[in-house]
Amino acid sequence: MSKKNFYLAALLLSLLGPASAQNDDSVTIKRIANEIMARGTAYENLRHLCKKVGPRLSGSPQAQKAVEATYQMLKDAGADTVYLQPCMVPHWVRGEKEEGYIQVANGAKYQLKLCALGNSEGTGKKGLTASVIEIKNFEELDRLGSDVIKGKIVFFNYPMNPTYIRSFMAYGESGAYRTRGPARAAKYGAAAVIVRSLASNLDDFPHTGTTIYNDSFPKIPAVAISTNDAEWLSKQLMRKMVTTAYIRTTSTMLPDAPSFNVVGEIRGTEIPGEIITVGGHLDSWDLAEGAQDDGAGCVQSIEVLRAFKALGLKSKRTIRAVMFMNEENGGRGADKYLALAKEKNEKHIFALESDAGGFTPRGFGLDMPEEKRQKAMAWKNLLYPYGVYELTAGGGGSDIGPLKQIGAALAGLSPDSQRYFDLHHAATDTFEAVSKRELHLGAVNMAALIYLVDKYGL
Amino acid sequence: MSKKNFYLAALLLSLLGPASAQNDDSVTIKRIANEIMARGTAYENLRHLCKKVGPRLSGSPQAQKAVEATYQMLKDAGADTVYLQPCMVPHWVRGEKEEGYIQVANGAKYQLKLCALGNSEGTGKKGLTASVIEIKNFEELDRLGSDVIKGKIVFFNYPMNPTYIRSFMAYGESGAYRTRGPARAAKYGAAAVIVRSLASNLDDFPHTGTTIYNDSFPKIPAVAISTNDAEWLSKQLMRKMVTTAYIRTTSTMLPDAPSFNVVGEIRGTEIPGEIITVGGHLDSWDLAEGAQDDGAGCVQSIEVLRAFKALGLKSKRTIRAVMFMNEENGGRGADKYLALAKEKNEKHIFALESDAGGFTPRGFGLDMPEEKRQKAMAWKNLLYPYGVYELTAGGGGSDIGPLKQIGAALAGLSPDSQRYFDLHHAATDTFEAVSKRELHLGAVNMAALIYLVDKYGL
Questions:
Q1: Is A114 exposed, middle or buried (0-12, 13-18, 19+ CB in 10 A)?
Q2: Catalytic annotation on B327?
Q3: Among the options B35, B121, B289, B327, which is catalytic?
Q4: In the CATH hierarchy, which fold is given to the domain comprising B95-250?
Q5: Structure confidence by residue, pLDDT tens digits, A77-135
Q6: ipTM
Q7: Angle B13-A396-A169 (CA atoms, 0-180°, nearest 5)?
Q8: pLDDT in tens, B435-444
Q9: Is residue B391 within a helix (H) or strand (E), and if so which, with residue range?
């Protein structure tokens, strides 16, 4: 950079905001950071949620246990009021032990590391045997059509692209094969679908996640296999070594079950009618402890409240920490939260979601009108010392998304994404894979952003 | 930000560099990134170094095995030449099984999770028993002096400060009690020293690391205990429940042993006499696989060479990947590298070190004159898409530090530091704690910086 540019940069910085206000704010944010980094309870709350409650899919007894546990955590954090929002949730069950194998041409059976996809229907107790065809992408599926696909097990083998530095981009691309693959294969008469797990690494753990059927076609069984198995299967198919595949799953969708969002509130001292939401989702897939997805977002949201209370920070507006139920396979908690907000004619000015893991924070995605975004962008230098340097357009998250309808500005925490899809929706998403300092540093930035939005509005 | 500021920012960006050169460079860097993220071998090389070679303290048979293994890795990476630089290294050994316990007032013995500090002398086979005094800091030690300290085991209990967001700052602060504590306590006649492990988390693993004796005072035995034990011991001392401590270590320093730096080179096509070094250190502590410290830096440096070769990128200057021996307890490899450079009158324009772990990259520290730093800073937007956003003054690293004497500009990779001191110098520094994508993303940024320095000079 030339000297001229250097002065321009200095000028630019000086125009970013009134220096004294920024100084006061940096002192308060440092207090918040010290409180959370030295005395935060998010990590121990997460341990409880992972180890004492465990996997907590919507409708399961553990989901109810998670409701009760976080209710207590919000009480302990010092929330002025804690309450439940009843909602009905889909109740999908995995059923009995699932299994599958490949019948190899030499007579051997190769056991697959597999799991039924979320919301999928099983094969029935007798299982299902058919020949397997590997499909690289939807174009190939459409080109082959019913003539080739009918009666076969379609194996979608679309790896996550390792060259995308932001791994969510790769997830977005490959994700279509899990969410839409079974429905699209059913259209051509496929007997069942095997998808390569949406995972960024090669290992032996299958990754589950929702698939979405199309009501016009049969609800065919759908499983994910581990990435190692996908590599193996692809190789064997190329060598013409695969005779048939056998899959047995007994998963099914039961009638809707009652459940709850859990809400803890600090009542605003000046404008209590204006609501700021910070949340994560309480449900997790049944295979995992749901540590990064999304126990992290829950305990971070509770931590925001705890830090305000511990420091005696008064918020002008009402701040709510919300544990949304049923993000993974229905979004009913989010729908309910919006419905109640509408019913009570609440004014929601801002909502922040953490549902990308409790990894070291890098930024916030800001989904709000340009004018508000510019206001938020001016706080960037206040967050910079805590690892957040990137405030980008777009973001938010699926649980707070509906609040856009009633005018809320939205934001989503963007942690580093390199490790997330190694463990997402798999048995490897455990408490041990979470770093206390990373988790707490995310909470620091969330609390700082909430503090600024509360103080200055948006 | 106001509209006016927005235009100023745009203007600033436009002045940062010639747009077309930056565009060519961004294309090449994207090629480098694709190569490393999709086909990089750093992770598998690290697996070999951790699992097939293992702990590799200077002078040990495993250190020699590591020399041979990385020699082959550099060959496989396609280096034009690979060679060894012989150097003599300190040969410290831990000796027989070490142990220690606290004799509690109620008659119980509490076994400590401890390890001798690196370079420390042991108690001898019979061990050593004495009363324990907790010392909070050096001021307290000096205040109490010989009258109180003489004959006692000094327990330095100085935790890493969790409120430092950059954890290396906390390490720098607490580190003095490990490196200088035993010598300072020996001055007052202490019988031995126990230090609280330099760890950012609470667990049961002791963390070793070098201590430095003062030749004017006795070389008293020195051990680290786990942070959980430090918390326990402090509590028991406060309750007056500690009678004595027993420590038994048989560590000692043997005569210097022969070892090597391992160097792989790509010969420059235009200015081969100008040398660019990229390196990490090959030795590790004996308790750990040395995955993050510093197997990561070694395999990343090899990966830089491999990517250049795999993509057919010609470097104008000579690029050397160097596996420095003996960073942990002597720095003899670094000294030797400098001595040979001086002897051969080499021109070293730039050296880059990775010795802060293979975590997700955030920046580079640049230790070089202001004019060169400004030149390097202008490349910031080229690295930004790969997670590096922070180019700061200072940095480098202890293995390349000596090259400053002969005019080299230095840089150090700055990965995220939240997890490093959970495992640094402890048995938890294993291959499993490394993320492939994080490790490779660090190598991407290292290769990109080397590419830019080679192309434009510094």
A1: buried
A2: yes
A3: B327
A4: Glucose Oxidase; domain 1 (3.50.30)
A5: 999 999 999 999 999 999 999 999 999 999 999 999 999 999 999 999 999 999 999 99
A6: 0.94
A7: 70
A8: 999 999 999 9
A9: strand B390-393
